[in-house]
Every structure is written in C-alpha cells, then in structure tokens.
Write a structure and sequence with these properties.
single chain, alpha/beta, Rossmann fold, seven-stranded mixed beta sheet, five-stranded parallel beta sheet, 14 helices, 12 strands, 17% strand, elongated
Length: 346
C-alpha cells in the first residue's frame, strides 16, 4: 500500500513547507536587516547632534576689576550658544595671582582667557602652546605676546588698553579740570615691557605743551606703592596721573584716600576709581572688554587661529567725574570738562 505522506496525526512528513516556512523566512530576513542596519549605523560618522553635544573646556583667570567682568563674559557666551553644564566647562579663578594663571594654563583646556598682563605672561611661560585671549593689557606686542596688532601671528590675541595718546589726553583733562596744577606725579604700576615707557613718553610730551612738570613714580608691589605715595607727599606735587596697571586697581581705595588727604587733584585709569570716590577717570568700558573677549573665544572655538584675529584697542574711552570729590578739593568742574563728560556722579 502506497504511503500517503502523512504520519498518524495527519501532518506532512516533509518538513516545513507552507505558511509556517514562509513566516520563518520573513522573520529571518527581518532580523538580518536589523543586524545590517545596526552595523551600518555604527560605521556612520558623528552626526550634527553629537557634535553639538561636545563640551568645550576653557579657562578664565580674573583679577579684582571691581565691575563684575566675569559675569558679562559668561552672559555673552550664553548668547552665543555656550551654556555651562551643557556644552561648556569653565575652569575659573577669581582675584587670581600670576601663579593661578600658570596653573590653569597647564590644564587640559582648549584656551585660557586672562584679564591682566601678569596673568598672560605667567600663562605663556607655563604653557607656550596654550591659546590665550587677553581682556586688558598695556602692551600685548611690546611684551612679546604678539608680533603686530593687525597680525598677532602666534596664539594670543585680545584687547590692548593703551592706544597712542591716551595718557596725554588724561593729563590734558586733569590740567583743564584743575588749572592750578603745575607739578604732576605720574604714578605707574604698569608691569612688563613697553607700557610704562609709552605712557611716560606721552605724558612728558603733553606736559611740555601744557606748561606743567611731571615726575614718574613706579611701583610693582604693595610695599613699593606705599613708598611711592610717601615720596609724592614729601615732594609736594600738586597733581596725580595714575598710569595703567592692575596693582593700582586692586589698591584703588588706598590711592583715592591718599589723593583726598593730600588734597591732590587726580585722574585715574579705570571707571571704578571715580565710582569709589576719585576725582575723574578717562577710561574704557571694562565690562564691554569682557564681552569682546567672549566673542574672541567664540571665534577660536569655531576654528579660528588666535594669531589671525587682530588685537583691538577699546572702541571708546569715557570721561567720568565725581562732584563730591571735586567739592572736597575746592574745585568746580569747568564747562570745557563737563561738556566732554559721559557720567557725572553726585
């Protein structure tokens, strides 16, 4: 008797034909396609999403500027798309010393922002390869941090706070505000090379035209600053022009109080001096300089070479006057000075 091809239960003896076999083939093809998709996905280059999630690492070394420059710096970076804790990490030091700048420059960071010349010089010495953005410096080129203003050529750029003629303008404003001034102390706390010499030359040239005598007093430490102030008092100078320098900003109240006690009209380098009781300042907007530093950072993180980014002078200088300080000195600001003022404090 010929076999029917079925077993005792009536099922087919030739193995997996029909609907069951087709289902398993489809399932196998689906699994294989998934496996292939997975392999191809692993081989794909990083997506834009992955790139956008990259955390950028920078350093920020601040002095005691008295204006909250670090806040302005962070706010500007945020408007440019960098958010701390998401795609940005900042290794920050506040009220920092040159040693702090050196420590940060040795870290695994993409660049370091330094506020002062001593910080920039220390960072460069500690790690010559570290890209630097300098917030405010008298003499970026003269101190060897760049070749020229237009084409820095190395790995540092930023804002140079000593354009030609700014010291002469300060002396002119002081003489106009206090016509009786005849012997002016040039108080210099400018570090490094070039900045002190440039300011001294500007002041001496302007002094000849204005008919006043000038005498420089230089300090690189708090002890030297105290000695310089004592010498100014002993020499009976009747005017004071404060040169650019972080040491004087940090110790501004000591200098302001000295000028008030000695009844010496003075003009200063930063707006915080007039805010804190000094007679007058002719100075840039340091907060805006921190914003500009953030814009430099954005360009570098997007691939720009610091050596290709021109160094800038501050866009504008502002005259700030303090009426209370003037009254305490027996002065009234003349119309020629008031007409130039951007801010007059009560």
């Amino acid at each position: 008797m010929r076999s029917s091809g079925k077993d005792s239960h009536g099922s087919q003896q030739r193995g997996h034909s029909g609907p069951t076999r087709k289902l398993r083939i489809k399932r196998r093809s689906f699994v294989q396609s998934l496996a292939g998709f997975g392999c191809e996905t692993l081989l794909l280059p990083p997506t834009n999403w992955a790139q956008n999630r990259r955390v950028r690492r920078i350093g920020l070394v601040l002095g005691n500027d008295g204006v909250g420059g670090g806040v302005a710096f962070r706010e500007t970076l945020r408007t440019l798309g960098y958010v701390e804790g998401q795609n940005l990490y900042i290794e920050a030091r506040e009220n920092a010393t040159a040693d702090s700048a050196a420590d940060v420059a040795r870290m695994d960071l993409e660049l370091v922002v330094v506020q002062t010349l001593p910080g920039a010089l220390a960072a460069r010495a500690a790690n010559p390869a570290m890209p630097l953005v300098i917030v405010t410096t008298p003499g970026i080129v003269s101190n060897g941090l760049a070749k020229t203003m237009e084409h820095p050529g190395g790995n540092a750029t930023g804002i140079d706070e000593l354009p030609p003629g700014v010291t002469a303008k300060r002396l002119e404003l002081l003489k106009t505000a206090a016509p009786s001034v005849s012997k002016v102390a040039l108080l210099s706390t400018t570090p490094g090379r070039g900045g002190h010499e440039t300011q001294l030359a500007d002041a001496q040239e302007a002094a000849t035209k204005l008919g006043v005598a000038v005498k420089p007093y230089r300090a690189t430490s708090v002890a030297e600053l105290e000695s310089a102030l004592a010498s100014i008092a002993a020499d009976r100078l009747n005017g004071l022009l404060n040169f650019q320098g972080g040491l004087s900003v940090v110790n501004r109240q000591r200098i302001i109080d000295f000028a008030a006690k000695q009844r010496v009209p003075a003009i200063y380098q930063a707006m915080v001096f007039s805010r804190d009781g000094g007679l007058m300042t002719w100075a840039p907007d340091l907060v805006e300089q921190h914003r500009e530093a953030a814009r430099y950072v954005d360009k570098i993180l997007k691939g720009a070479n610091p050596g290709d980014l021109p160094i800038h002078y501050p866009a504008r200088y502002f005259l700030s006057l303090n009426n209370t300080a003037a009254k305490n000195l027996g002065l009234t600001f003349p119309p020629a000075v008031l007409a130039q003022a951007d801010r007059v404090l009560p």
